[in-house]
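Record 1 of the preview.
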Amino acid sequence: QVQLVESGGGLVQAGGSLRLACAASGSTFGLLHMGWYRQATGKERESVATISSGGGRTYYADSVKGRFRISRDNAKNTLYLQMSSLKPEDTAMYYCAAWRGIYSSGSPQSWGQGTQVTVSS
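->
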């Protein structure tokens, strides 16, 4: 079972940037598809961005396209989310997730505890 620990959240003004990181342990990171998800207060959790195990395929929610960039360093067992041009509506708890199997049709099997991102207007 993989363990996931997120970091990098915080309070930032609208228009600012943050970089989230997710450190993985307990499994072969390079075999895991990974993703970032978020849940705002009173809303359902939604997919923000995902990346295949080798890094060759990515997905972005329409709401973050052109502003967020997902990446991974398999040598460091770490997933990243570079967030730019942040908006108040990006405020949420951000979770890292992992799964094995088919990238496009798979769903997360492991979750981190989350890191809070708050964007002030």
